[in-house]
Design goal:
alpha/beta; TIM Barrel; eight-stranded parallel sheet; globular; binds adenine; binds zinc ion; adenine deaminase activity; Metal_Hydrolase; A_deaminase_dom; EC 3.5.4.2; nucleotide metabolism
């Protein structure tokens, strides 16, 4: 099964590029940029990756990305991940990135965008990989700031596929970002949002009704409401479910009790992603292997999940047809 899963062409719809920063590269960049880390070694960093909840993770995630300063750093971050993913049989990645987290530290949008776009272009030429760009906004920061950043990104609008909504979900409902998502729609950008990860099922409905999203990132708490499940079923909205992330962030107790099989039983449009592979114990292949072990799914089940993802990936029609 592991060989099959490795060679299966896989599609990653939910990946935070800053969450792909492995401790080895984090240390290299820290040294390059003269930044002090709160860890003495790679092993010490890895040992610190034990999370109580989403906020506990976010604290280390934002601290980790403080080593990203120059265009070359963003290029190295993305290229390092693209090569690793490609070796694992990943053929498409829709990549979230968090501009506000960098702007806040005095790193310009041009630095972030040019590094990531250079890596994307090179990966698309040299690896069998396509990359979608999702500019994500931090829901625990002011809505006005998000809108300003989207306007500031005008030179890059044509390079974006979508906007997303991430960071601390509790007490930051989708309704806070109606104006941002309306503007993105006006600009012809697709829209996705994290909802129902730590937040309630009602946030999923808000994201659908108020933000007009085409995907729900995570969404697993939909199972707490029959109405929400019915809505997701009727619309066949894609859920980008991240099993190892949910275990790491204690959204579920263990993989064996993860709601993935229940979501499939309800006929929902489920896909599998890795979220923040450097922090949650592995990339897309590891997520697949863990699911095979926990749920005993057969080869067709994994083919179907990746077909679901390919249909929704932010890529050109010829590339989609090539992948399907
Ligand atoms: N940013 C990076 N990973 C995230 C997650 N799992 N949930 C919300 N925001 C995030
Ligand atoms: Zn996420």
């Amino acid at each position: 099964m592991q060989d099959f899963l490795r060679s299966l062409p896989k599609v990653e719809l939910h990946l935070h590029i800053e969450g792909s920063l492995e401790p080895e590269l984090m240390f290299e960049l820290a040294e390059r940029n003269g930044i002090e880390l709160p860890y003495l070694s790679v092993d010490e960093a890895k040992a610190a990756y034990q999370f109580k909840d989403l906020q506990g993770f976010l604290n280390l995630y934002y601290q980790g990305m403080s080593v990203l300063c120059l265009e070359q750093d963003f290029y190295d971050l993305a290229m390092d991940y693209f090569k690793r993913a490609s070796r694992e049989g990943v053929v498409h990645i829709d990549m979230h990135f968090d501009p506000q987290a960098h702007l806040q530290r005095g790193v310009s949008l041009d630095v972030v965008m040019s590094g990531l776009l250079r890596a994307k272009q090179e990966a698309e030429q040299s690896l069998d990989l396509s990359v979608g760009m999702i500019m994500a906004f931090l829901r625990d920061r002011p809505a006005e700031e998000a809108l300003q950043v989207l306007e500031q990104a005008a030179p890059y609008w044509d390079k974006l596929d979508a906007i997303g909504l991430d960071s601390a979900e509790r007490d930051h409902p989708p309704s806070k970002f109606v104006a941002l998502f309306e503007r993105a729609k006006e600009l012809g950008l697709a829209r996705v949002a994290h909802a129902g990860e730590e937040g309630p099922a009602s946030y999923i409905i808000e994201a659908l009704d108020l933000l007009d999203v085409c995907r729900i990132d995570h969404g697993i708490r939909c199972l707490e409401s029959d109405d929400v499940v019915e809505r997701l079923y009727q619309q066949q909205t894609v859920l980008t479910v991240c099993p190892l992330s949910n275990v790491s962030l204690k959204v579920v107790d263990e993989l064996a009790s993860h709601p993935l099989p229940a979501l499939l039983d309800k006929g929902l449009n489920v896909t599998i992603s890795s979220d923040d592979p450097a922090y949650f114990g592995g990339g897309l292949l590891d997520n697949h292997i863990a699911c095979a072990q926990a749920f005993g799914w057969d080869e067709e089940a994994f083919q179907a999940l990746n077909r679901n993802a390919m249909k929704e990936a932010f890529t050109s029609e010829p590339r989609r047809q090539e992948l399907l």
